[in-house]
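Students often ask why we bother encoding 3D structure as a string. The short answer is that it lets us treat folding as translation between two languages. Here is a chain of 57 residues written in the first language.
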Amino acid sequence: MKFLRPITVETGKVRAIGTVLNSGRRTALAQAELRDSDDLLLAHATSSCMLFPVPAR
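And here it is in the second language, the structure alphabet:
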């Protein structure tokens, strides 16, 4: 996670947006953003995820 601007009480409401950029059979790439009420980017993050199948019951 990379914080670009300070987030304080004065920032007000903060919106979190999560997006899957790519999803394959075994891995996925995702990103997240934090934005203020003026749509100013406050922080962002990326993640590489390994996917495990859920066994059927």
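Translate back mentally: The longest strand covers residues 14-23. Keep this in mind for the problem set.
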